[in-house]
Amino acid sequence: MAKSMQKMLLLAAVETVSGTPVVPLPGTNAILTRNPVFNMIDGEQVERNLMKPFKGNSGKLFVGEHRKFTFEVELAGSGVAGTAPAWSPLLQACGFAETVTAGVDVTFNPVSQGEPTLTLYGYLDGTLFTVSGAKGNVSFELNAKQIPVMKFEFTGSYSAATEPGMPGGVDYSAFIMPKTVGKTNTPTFTFFGLNACTSAFSINWGNTVTWRDLINCAGAHSPTRSPTGSATIELPKADQVNWGEKVRTSDVGSATLVHGVTAGNIIELQMPRLQSGIGTVNNDADIAMLQLPFDLMPDQGDDELVIICR
After folding, report:
1. Which pLDDT score, from 0 to 100, does residue 167 have?
2. Count of domains in the chain?
3. What residues form DSSP beta bridges with 134?
4. Is the pLDDT of residue 196 over 90?
5. What is the DSSP letter of 88?
6. Which residues have C-beta within 8 Å of that of residue 83, sequence separation ≥ 6?
7. What is the pTM of this model?
8. Deepest in the core among 105, 163, 248, 294, taking most CB within 10 A?
9. In terms of residue numbers, what domain contains 273?
10. What is the C-alpha to C-alpha distance for residues 157 and 67, in angstroms, rounded to an integer?
11. In-domain check, residue 46
12. What is d(CA 113, CA 253) in angstroms, rounded to the nearest whole number?
């Protein structure tokens, strides 16, 4: 019987002990996603390379079995200022710490150690794929006339798929309606001091998540991160901002983006130190647009991207 790609469900729960699976529940741990992909298995196949008196393959052995999940989550708040959004556990497992100020805001700051791991359940029309000890990477996309999204990739331990059927009692009420990106809903974007007319903005958090399978140890590791981004803005006059000179002199600037105008659904991204790469000029409806790559750098440490939900 064919499996329907319209019947998919993701559950995610923080593990009390990293690598020890917990059981996420559809009533409290359901994640409202877009474009989910639950890999059957990930790993490597090593050649046996056997010598025989005839030609032909020797076969392969599978090593380092693990599993990856990828999916998107709409970028929106919780609906109540000072209440963590439902996607908070996902962001924490990508290397952010959550700080809640009741009734005011929720702040996510980067951490260099101690981030939690997740157990993820991915259902595809009754087939269950599970991942435990999962760590992830996240990227943010806020493009004009589009829904802002976070794109996640998680890596964790493998277990054989089962057929329990689709669970009932799924509750998505913690996920609220997002706002599209544009002048009305995205009131603030400053980039190197410029109030830039912008068509696209993205950040890749750049976590290096690898699966290590050694004697006496196996698991997902995130030893480093290299956050990068891209902004596509209207090309300013050279006497306003000379981007060629900024690149030539290795200039460092900052950026702030605020999306949302209603308390409980305002997301602010603060980037205190950016360094621009070599940009390219493109034609967009006969308007000169400058696409600028950039690196996010820490200032005092663990602060290269601060996310505030208020």
Report:
1. 97
2. 1
3. 118
4. no
5. H
6. 100, 106, 264
7. 0.96
8. 294
9. 8-41+64-217+224-309
10. 6
11. no
12. 27
